[in-house]
Structure to design on (404 residues):
């Protein structure tokens, strides 16, 4: 899931676990702990793109890591409060700088994804205002304050961190990317494919719950009720997405049958930011059949299937190549290969669909890799070429979600 959702989930679960004992610290430590597994993205700076692809949502998203991280963080944080280090001004300044640095990285990520929608000045203004507000809040509520004692035991901290760290990979299991929960013993990626990697309808209730709870006294019964209400509504929505998936799966297979399309298997998943627009990919002998449906469509069927030739023969001779094995494993075999205009090969993961509802050219594919041979081996570089996410395209996308 996206970073904001993980921050919100960690804060909510932290509050539910130790909020009554340690107050707002539970929100902060919970949010921090739930982002720890995603530090595996730092591998992008030290390894090849294909190795980083395999490493992300790997060991640092596993059951084993959840246990080790809980023990390590639990012992370290219990010592931090027992030693009194947390009261020192230098420590508090270091915390403030670290939080602002993480905020800056988050804003850069938002700019990278949605920059064309909000524009440079809109993004910069929002980032500065938000950063100044965050800095003032940390200063007034944390750095300048005399901090109270913390009474949680080491055992309580370890349990706290196991819940807040391990809930991250559990949540990641629900979207298409998948999570290697059983590393280092097995690289199987658990993925239920029922919710988008970013879905505001799931996140908003967690955010509202922790925001209102943070305004109430730590021993207030209302604080616990509000926080648990936010968690409960989000979990109910998660269950509802499974109903949507079941309905779409039946509709998708019925549409295939009515159009006399024979297939061996299929997968389905929601489009970004919503659970109303769904896509399905069915595998035939020589092609994949890709179709979209929104629950706002007037007719309960997939009207058009895009026929996408596999062209797997273009990779003949590379069957034992490490890069190709990783790409096949990652895409679960739902891929095709095309020859780009520049003559290079392009590997397309079809589970993520297209920028439009067709696959007319090389830039239409959302998740793609450009392949080149180097020293007798394949080298893969992820391509982000495609249509820009500007206001006009964003509007067209939401029109499609609404069945227009």
């Amino acid at each position: 899931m996206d970073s904001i959702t993980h921050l919100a989930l960690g804060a909510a679960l932290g509050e539910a676990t130790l909020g009554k004992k340690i107050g707002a610290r539970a929100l902060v430590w919970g949010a921090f702990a739930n982002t720890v597994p995603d530090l595996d993205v730092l591998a992008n700076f030290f390894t090849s793109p294909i190795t980083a692809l395999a490493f992300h949502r790997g060991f640092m998203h596993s059951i084993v890591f959840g246990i080790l991280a809980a023990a390590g963080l639990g012992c370290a944080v219990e010592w931090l409060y027992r030693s009194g280090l947390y009261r020192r001004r230098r420590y508090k300044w270091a915390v403030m700088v670290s939080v602002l640095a993480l905020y800056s990285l988050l804003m850069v990520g938002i700019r990278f994804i949605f920059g064309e929608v909000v524009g440079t000045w809109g993004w910069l203004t929002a980032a500065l205002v938000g950063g100044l507000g965050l800095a003032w809040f940390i200063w007034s509520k944390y750095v300048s304050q005399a901090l109270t004692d913390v009474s949680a035991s080491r055992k309580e901290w370890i349990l706290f961190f196991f819940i807040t760290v391990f809930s991250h990979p559990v949540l990641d299991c629900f979207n298409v990317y998948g999570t290697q929960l059983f590393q280092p013993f097995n690289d199987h990626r658990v993925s239920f494919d029922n919710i988008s990697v970013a879905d505001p309808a799931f996140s908003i209730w967690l955010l509202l719950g922790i925001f209102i709870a943070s305004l109430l006294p730590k021993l207030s019964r209302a604080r616990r009720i509000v926080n648990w209400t936010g968690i409960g509504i989000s979990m109910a929505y998660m269950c509802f997405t499974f109903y949507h998936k079941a309905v779409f799966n039946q509709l998708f297979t019925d549409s295939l049958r009515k159009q006399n399309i024979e297939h061996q298997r299929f997968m389905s998943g929601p489009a970004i930011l919503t659970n109303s627009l769904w896509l399905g990919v069915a595998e035939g002998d020589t092609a994949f059949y890709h179709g979209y449906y929104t629950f706002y469509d007037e007719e309960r069927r997939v009207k058009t299937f895009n026929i996408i030739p596999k062209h797997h023969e273009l990779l003949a001779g590379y069957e034992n190549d490490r890069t190709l094995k990783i790409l096949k494993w990652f895409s679960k075999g739902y891929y095709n290969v095309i020859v780009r205009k520049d003559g290079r090969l392009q590997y397309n993961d079809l589970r993520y669909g297209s920028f439009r509802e067709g696959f007319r050219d090389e830039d239409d594919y959302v998740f793609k890799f450009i392949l080149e041979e180097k020293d007798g081996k394949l080298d893969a570089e992820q391509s982000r070429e495609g249509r820009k996410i500007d206001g006009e395209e964003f509007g067209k996308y939401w029109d499609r979600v609404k069945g227009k």
Summary: The mean pLDDT is 92. Strands lie at 265-270, 277-283, 287-294, 306-309, 335-339, 345-354, 365-374, 377-383. The chain has two domains: 3-241, 259-404.
